[in-house]
Design goal:
- It is built from eleven helices and ten strands.
- The protein has about 300 residues and is of the alpha+beta class.
- The N and C termini lie far apart (about 50 Å).
Length: about 300
């Protein structure tokens, strides 16, 4: 099932069915709402703070009980009552506190930094100047899982107005936190294979692009990318560039390690892109997205300092 919401779900989110939930998420940069298969996940520090699923005309509220170890039953009942009563000003502070305690020092580091990427490019103060917006995180399709799905929509005025036949482009981004994440299952080569499986199947690729188009437009309707709201940018995207790109966003690699150099050499797709920070931020600008050869040459000493 595609990761889109029923029209009635969209209407209810925009109305008072959920109280001020959408407004709360929009004004709290520590929260991130993601559209799923007729349900939504709201993330905090990379963890799912609450899930709301549409079943017929009813909504089911749930969350990961592992975040609520102390007085689990009591905490669960209290939080469920707060969410069902739309008391979000009470629910989120209590749920955040429980997650802060139970995520612990090791937590979900990659997912927490992944959420920072979403924040910087979608709804931070600099989001309108970046060239990429994050449509989805932890995307699953058949046996593949992609960390992030982004759309490249260059911040130049003519591009944002979709002039001169300009079309935005989809990009699959794999984020790797630390050198251990570069190898083996879910490493660079594993993600490369999943990407290859997708783009080599014409039907799967077409369905994926159609799904992301609807997904993108629903995000915009819900105001989750403020600079692309109807009042800020009324230009409607009706299709993407045919090609879907693959990019790696490698975080906190140790230049003294040989792991990244070895994994880069083993990649089959030399058309893969690599995203680097722009002065220590997570805003993604097209000037900071490099091809395989450029990346290896320009960042040779950071990839492996011999």
């Amino acid at each position: 099932m595609p990761r889109i919401l029923d029209d009635n779900f969209i209407i209810d989110l925009l109305s008072n069915r959920f109280g001020n939930l959408l407004h709360t998420v929009q004004r709290d940069p520590s929260l991130g709402l993601q559209i799923r298969e007729n349900y939504i996940n709201i993330y905090y520090r990379g963890g799912n703070i609450i899930k709301i699923e549409m079943k017929d005309t009813e909504y089911i509220h749930s969350f990961d009980e592992n975040y609520y170890q102390e007085n689990k039953t009591q905490s669960k009942n209290e939080l469920l009552e707060l969410s069902k009563s739309n008391k979000w000003d009470q629910f989120f502070p209590q749920a955040k506190r429980a997650m802060d305690i139970n995520l612990g020092p090791d937590g979900k580091e990659e997912r927490e930094f992944q959420q920072l990427v979403v924040r910087d490019n979608n709804y931070s103060s600099i989001a309108n100047s970046t060239d990429y917006f994050i449509l989805d995180v932890e995307y699953s399709r058949k046996r593949a899982r992609f960390d992030m799905i982004a759309v490249e929509w260059i911040s130049e005025s003519s591009a944002r107005k979709l002039q001169k036949n300009y079309l935005p482009k989809l990009m699959i981004i794999e984020m790797k936190y630390g050198d251990k994440a570069l190898q083996g299952k879910s490493g660079l080569r594993d993600h490369e294979k999943h990407y290859q499986d997708l783009v080599s199947n014409e039907s799967d690729l077409s369905n994926f692009k159609e799904e992301m188009l609807v997904h993108f437009n629903q995000i915009r309707v819900l105001g989750l990318i403020p600079c692309l709201s109807e009042t800020e940018n009324p230009n409607t995207v009706t299709r993407f560039v045919d090609r879907v790109e693959l990019a790696f966003l490698i975080t906190n690699h140790d230049p003294a390690s040989t792991i990244l150099a070895k994994e880069l050499t083993s990649l089959q797709r030399r058309d893969a892109k690599f995203i680097v920070s722009n002065f220590m931020g997570y805003g993604i600008y097209h000037q900071s997205v490099f091809g395989y050869a450029q990346f290896r040459q320009r960042f040779m000493r950071q990839i492996h300092e011999v």
